Amino acid sequence: MQDGSLYAVGDTCYLKYYIIEDGERVHKTIQLCKRSDVHYWRQRTRNGKTRWEFSSAVGELQRETMDKVRADAKAAEVAALALTRKGTPGEMRVVDFWGQKYLPYIEAVLPLTGQPRRKASTIRGFKQIWKQHLKGHFGETMLKDYEPAMGKRFLRSLTATQGKTTLKHIKALAGSLFGYAVDEEFIKVNPWHDVKIPDDAIESGATEHYTLAEVEDLISSLVDHVDAQLVLALACFLGLRPGELAAVKWEDFDEDTVSIRRSVVRGVVGTPKTPESLATLPLPEQVKIPLQLWWKKCDKPTEGWVFKSSENTPVDLHNLISRVIKPHVEGKSKCRVCDLIPKPSGVAWKTLYAGRRGAATAVIEANNGNLAIGQALLRHKNQMTTATFYKKAVTPETLRNGMKMLEAASKAAATTSDSKKQA
To answer: Per-residue pLDDT for 87 more than 50?
Structure first.
């Protein structure tokens, strides 16, 4: 590896060098130092050629930095070599396997699809669980030394602070990590295979949803922001996920339907969460009206993002929610667009996902408890997912209507029975 080259821009000195990554030469540029009485430079022209001259202190800093770069490269080389030694799995810590083997595996882009092996949202969730829970737990433990009892004790230690759902996520990631270690022949048995969720784990609190009445109040509170109204309508009547909602384009709509074709996670546009999520949904009037108004306000476009940023990328919904939607819903802060503190809507803000849950609940109730309709709307592969996580408790009115239908059915059955007896 070379010693790198120096150049300056204004009062900042930069160091440019290259390293070898995956057999290819990759150029790197880092900020080396700011101009000072010790670290300084100038340009001098000799024989018609202009070149930089740097103080000896800058040169020394360059050498120290490159020594560290070379040392890091050597360490990475040794670690990579260790990965190939399948006969010595005990030489690798769990945390090293995560960073050097498992994470690159799930982040790898597959030539067949052009997408990472795991979706960006999944990887982001994995990284959060790793950083918050698993990294510290594994510490210096070697792959070969980790035992099922360690996982059991760890989950039991979390029952006082974490709900059952979080424990399931932790177990799933740990099991996947060690499962891959088994596949790669670093260990023979997955120690998390027999780790069970503690019996005393606390069930997570019920997720919230919006009623249809609340949705009407939410949308009415945003009468001066038709784009925000459309966002809520797509979430609360069509059940679109936030990533799908941010990624819709004008060409996805026709007169009566919208086709869900993509999703965006932290600015990265990809496919929706599951293959079943790719679908065409009918548009109710509650969506058509704000859609038409927003289309006209955008000068009747035929293509492009429905909700776009100033850089012509999918909008960051978090910004729209914090700057416009929540101020109008809650009435506690100034709207960044209309520069007013609106009157509160009377409805608590419960996130866009509450709109998705509310849409499922409403459409199932409106169809006499037909879960298949809710499953189709939310585009779930398994109807149990719709029933377990998205369909909320029936309203008292629906229960009363259901009991009336039961009463009528019972009377009809009794009448039929009497007729048969008389015959």
So the answer is: no
| Distance, CA of 105 to CA of 385 (rounded, Å) | 28
Q: Which two tokens stand for residue 304?
A: 């492009």
**Nearest C-alpha neighbor of 385 from the set 396, 372, 401:** 372
Please determine, for residue 385, whether its predicted confidence score (pLDDT) is greater than 90.
no
* Mean pLDDT value across residues 330-351: 94
In which band, very low, low, confident or very high, does the pLDDT at 409 lie, cut at 50, 70 and 90?
confident
- CA-wise closest residue to 70 among 32, 18, 7, 5: 18
pTM score of the predicted model: 0.63
Q: Amino acid identity of 173? A: L
Between the two ends of the chain, the Cα-to-Cα distance in Å is 101
- The one-letter amino acid code at 73 reads A
Which of 263, 130, 151, 152 has the alpha carbon at shortest distance from 200? 152
CA distance 380 to 370: 14
The domains of the chain, with CATH numbers, are 5-84 (no CATH), 89-183 (1.10.150), 212-364 (1.10.443.10)
Candidate from 190-199, 343-352, 378-387 with smallest mean pLDDT: 378-387
pLDDT tens, residue by residue, 268-277: 888 888 888 9
Cα separation of 65 and 249, whole Å? 48
For residue 227, pLDDT beyond 70: yes
What pLDDT is recorded for position 418?
67
